[in-house]
User: Fold these one by one.
Assistant:
Number 1:
Amino acid sequence: MAEKYFDFDGISEFAKEVALKELGETPENVTNGLRELKRLLQLETNISVPIDNELWLMNFLRFCKFNPESAKQKIFRYLNLKKSLNFAESFQYDDTNLPKAKGMFSGLKQRDKLGRRVMITRLEQWDPKILDKYLILNITYPTVNLLRLEPDTQINGWIYILDCKGLNYTHVLTITPRFIKTMIDFIIHFLPIRARGYHIVNNPFFFQPIFKLTKQFLPEEYRSLIMMHGKNISELHRYIAPECLPECYGGTAEDAELPLEETYSVVKKYENTLKHFLECEIKDT
């Protein structure tokens, strides 16, 4: 049932307009971009990438607005981080840790009015004594890559909501500088998905030091994408229409969320596709 909320085939008319306007995606640029990126990658002897998988290549070309050289550099950064982020070395379907994250992660079933995916994390549902902070990355890695299979998501990008309701000092002590840097490396430097906004809601006063620390690791262009709304949920509606949001965020959408557990059923079905999609590495020299 969850599969019906994903768009793996084709591109919507809305996304085609966005691709043309924001990314310069024309038939000529697609043809030339793919040809040049393949040529550049074939010259590199220390990498193994799915060079014939055009959806994989298009993911990087779209992210880099069809600049083949920039796309190649992004691929190298991706491969280097893939090696250092040990959870990303290879894809293996594993749902054994899902119960530890019950209620913590979800996504909206429908895209927002600008065609963007909206993902939600609720810290209230996270018990660091049960779910190790680095296991969070293992658990979310498969579903995030599922979004990379969607052409519309490659084009329109995603929005992330971090709900800090229930944040306590145990969480604060768990969120170390090293962990913050790992999360930023994963979300910003590693994933070739266009970030369209990071919205923090229900954040208490003691969240400010965490945010201040986080900003130190953020590239300048990403700092403007982060908005802290506190308990002023109506402020969130300036960026995401209430019709798209669940009631808990002042929205009017019914049965709006798709829990991570249900998404994993789609991950299971596309396990082989994801394995091939993620078969790439930078070789030791």
Number 2:
Amino acid sequence: MSAALQTWRGRDRLHTVNAVQGLRAAPSPLQTSSRRVYELLRSAIRTGYLPAGTQLVEFELVQALSTSRNALRVALQLLADEGVVERNPRSGTFITSAMVQITLNELDPEARVQTSGLIADLTSTEVFDEQLLDERVIPASPYIRRRMQTQEEYVLMHERLITVRGEPHHVWLGYVSADVDYATVRPNGERELIFRERFGVEYSHAEDSVEAVPCDPRTSSLLHVPPGSPILLCETLMFDIDGRIRELRFRYNRGDRTSYKVDHREMR
């Protein structure tokens, strides 16, 4: 590198450091970015700091977020467009929809999830509800046999709609061996116990993959979102202690109502 280029890079680095120090020495008194205000509000709703049913008072939020009224109103309108809050000129702005936060190592619907700051089992009738959409024995397609590493000719297919406080949240589609009496075992939040009662063997682990996909017309009608809306598709393989795949699951989550949380301490 030439001496001139080294000198230029040194001056540029010094200019950048001085600029950053200047910003820190004289910070802006207000958070004027509506996007950043939106992110902070959505985080407060997702984590339960602002639970469903809370009235959002503009004067209080302006102070709490150190922002301007214009930036706050734009952020609130973005949340209203998503259906997270409802704005009424007479009654004010209220949080109308709960958001579900799911730990990444507990992606299946029977695991414990966090809903607006409250820990609850998915089967709690106070928060969650489950509607059976379809359940029948079907021929195992070549791909299902390959994915589940089985030679069985038939599998039991079951599909359910899960709602959170009366609002559709996700569609759950699963495939198990045709001889499994799936309906006799009701989820209670303990994955290992459910697995043992359902399949008669001990649970080992699960493999999950999550991706964003466009919502198909049928699923969009179930989740009450426009066709083509981004949804989170989670595919799960459930293994027993002998390494056999006991269940293949697909879970279609509303992208505007779901967040996934990773606790790196649990992954060490």
Number 3:
Amino acid sequence: MRARNTRQQILDATQRLMETGGYASLTTKQIAQEAGCAEGTLFKYFKRKEELCLAVVLENSPKFREAIAGVQHGKSTVAKNLERIALAAISFFDKLLPLVVALLANMELLTEHRRVMREHGRGPKDVFELIATYIEGEQQLHRIGSRVAPTSAAALLLGPCFHRVLIRQVMGNDLFPSSDRDFVTALAATLLDGLSPSRTKRSRRQ
């Protein structure tokens, strides 16, 4: 149990340093100091810095998939469910984006990341599929129009969330002065105007 805690402390420390200072200047000595352990302890769990940083991206990212999987069709309202997914997406992107920047700054690390993702069948596609599955379930209950393309609807939900976080992290503030809660409420309402069964029926007649 102690070894597991030490490994997690190292992952947490590495993530904090990557978020604040990036990957290029990061050293194992800095990581050890941040984690409160000897530098040699790092190499008991990770062969090199690149392997450690890759583990941060793969293991220490927010549990976005679990959050989406917890949203069930037919439960609550569609608007509330979309808001819940969007809030989880913003939280996910907020923590993931600095790690992605670190990946893009190191081609060796990026190549290894792609290889591992392919081997384990992980990546953005399964997130879209989870949301699309939820939307399909709502379509079967006639709470979302049958002509709506589930994957496209998922993209319309996630895209603005990613853009909001990107602007926030690049500019240092949100593009529009609203809370994340207000943002996702407006986003869900706007999407529902196009996803609702009555709306898709009108579009079919036009």
Number 4:
Amino acid sequence: MIRIVIIEGQPLLRIGLVRAISQFTHPSMSVCGEADCEDEGIEMIAQTLPDIVLLNLDLPGMGGIEATIAIKRRFKCKVVILSTLADPEVVALALDSGADSYLLISSDLESLKLAIQDTHKGQGWVDPRVSKTFLASKRHQEKNHFIKGKKFGITLTITEIRTLKLIARGLSNEQIAEMQNVSLGTVKSCVYVINQKLEVRNRVQAIIRGILLGYLSYNTIILEAVSNEFTEPGISNFAAIRN
């Protein structure tokens, strides 16, 4: 019996997942807990100790990425990310954060069953509709991108570097989400991971750390800020760096 906790903010989708899983056999599966946010989900995991957690990437609050990190730090269960996003960089961010598998919400029931089954066996499962582009993207990154912070033991993904650059330009999380065509929760999760990796507590510290590690160029940031006439929050960040 594979025991599963579902963390999904949309009630109808959560109910559908419970009903679908209850019909699966060989191997049999059961839902031992449900939650609509990460805090309740973590409490449910602590109470039930499931084998698998089905986790929506776009959760309110901390978001699916941060929730994955929190779950993996405390528990031995495996995490299957549920998402509407087929972007290979989003897939990479989820897997880099500790997720074991990645499944598109639009998948059929057979794919859901296979994802749970293979993940339980210890085999990472990535939705076939994104796996080819994901692998191609990973090969391209490994071949063509030099990770500047690697010698300091700090490695940011391409998505994290792009987000850090937008932060340095003074953009808010909402503006970054709109520019990259992703959800606000995804951006918040990415920012959280950046801060954790750089060991900083706020945006100004992240920018300074990014410059010191070579991810950001101070002169380029200032020129972009002036030429694009960014808002006051962005300008104040640069003033803080100069001081």
